[in-house]
Design brief:
single chain, about 325 residues, D-amino Acid Aminotransferase, Chain A, domain 1, 2 domains, four-stranded parallel β-sheet, 9 helices
Length: about 325
């Protein structure tokens, strides 16, 4: 009889392909995977591959207790966070209930640091990791970008092209990270997996972001890029990151292809499917580490490209209509 592994997604509402990849990885390991997803709304696309559990918000005071009730009820073995707010929750859960489930991420403090853009930029600078130059009051520079300090998915970003706009942003200066804006650029994402147990980087898979919609990639392609891999490895080591990590970089095409870190998300990225199908099987590594199986580093194939499209998942009176 195959061993069963129960996987709980946190905020995996749209991660249908990733759910399928986890099931495929489980089969390769001789496991049977059951996917659950912890959501505030039961009508979400991943319902076609997972059992939806309607739960608390990440900011609720009792989120860890409620999460533990879910772990107990459904005999959860692995928790995988997919949205920013869920990462620190998953890490905090692992710290409060050590050894109860496997969480492919580092400690909560590191997660919170990475999701505070101002503090993260300072941490990168202190580690001598190149980032876009941070704006300081009084400097004569107007080609700037202001990012909400705790924002995600490109929401709330302000392009600064005038003194008036700059002054408006500075009225709320503590709420934003203001940096130089690199307009002539290439955007890169690096999907990584670092062993939670020993900190060994097993996957560092760079890909080019060709098209993004609403802050999430819809067209991306794996590439062979030594400079990107090297910088990403430095970031992973300097920040002591573990588990699934997404490093976002910018190549400045006007400045001798200067490579800078835009941000780091200590979780699986939305476009990580591309790296997985190219051979960087992060779900396989997560399940292998969770079940004590051997871990092997992998190098993905360059030139693998995915293009996303919309597909309907139908519900009738709140119930999934699976035969649509």
């Amino acid at each position: 009889m195959q061993r069963r592994v129960n996987i709980l997604f946190l905020g995996g509402a749209k991660r249908v392909s990733m759910a399928r990849l986890f099931k495929r990885a489980a089969e390769r390991l001789g496991l049977t995977a059951e996917i659950f997803s912890y959501e505030i709304d039961e009508v979400v696309p991943v319902a076609c591959e997972a059992t939806i559990i309607k739960g608390s918000r990440w900011s609720d005071d009792d989120i860890l207790e409620r999460l533990d009730e879910t772990v107990e009820r459904y005999a959860i073995n692995v928790i995988v966070p997919f949205v920013d707010g869920a990462v620190a929750v998953a890490s905090a859960y692992a710290a409060r209930y050590p050894g109860k489930v496997f969480v492919p991420s580092g400690d909560a403090a590191t997660a919170e640091l990475m999701f505070d853009k101002v503090c993260a930029a300072k941490a990168f600078e202190n580690a001598d990791i190149s980032v876009p130059r941070t704006y300081h009051r009084g400097e004569p520079c107007l080609r700037l970008i202001a990012k909400p300090r705790h924002g995600s998915a490109s929401k709330g970003i302000v392009m600064i092209n005038s003194v008036e706009t700059l002054n408006d942003v500075l009225l709320h200066g503590d709420d934003y990270l203001i940096q130089e804006r690199i307009d002539n650029r290439e955007e890169l994402t690096v999907d990584c997996y670092v062993s939670v147990a020993d900190g060994l980087p097993l996957v560092v898979s760079p890909r080019r972001r060709n098209v993004t919609v609403g802050g999430e990639v819809s067209d991306t392609e794996t590439i062979d890029d030594d400079a990107t891999v090297e910088l990403s490895r430095r970031v992973l080591a300097a920040m002591n990151l573990r588990g699934a990590v997404t490093v976002q970089l910018i190549r400045d095409l006007d400045c001798r292809e200067r490579l800078v870190v835009m941000e780091v998300n200590p979780r699986l990225g939305g476009g990580a499917v591309c790296s997985v199908v190219a051979g960087a099987d992060i779900p396989l590594l997560i399940l292998s580490e969770a079940t004590g199986l051997p871990l092997e580093a992998s190098v993905p194939q360059a030139g693998v490209r995915i293009c996303r499209y919309m597909q309907e998942v139908v519900f009738v009176n709140g119930v999934l209509k699976s035969d649509y």
